[in-house]
Amino acid sequence: MEELQKTKDVDVCESNVYLRGKDGDKLVMEDAVLIEDEGGRIKATNILGEEKVFEGVIEEITFLDHRVIISD
Hints:
Helix content is 7%, strand content 60%. By secondary structure, it is mainly beta. The chain has a domain at 11-57.
């Protein structure tokens, strides 16, 4: 995250992170700017530097809709 914070004059694209379950997609983080795959765990960091870790894998990334889908 430090590298992102040091970058100047760059447009930042945020994405919303959803957890896919049997009841559909649930929004679990807004404005994520960094997604890290840690081998069975996904760490998401939002624009404020808040981090959340989810068990699962990245199932889908849709750049046009700014959506990241994580499933277990």
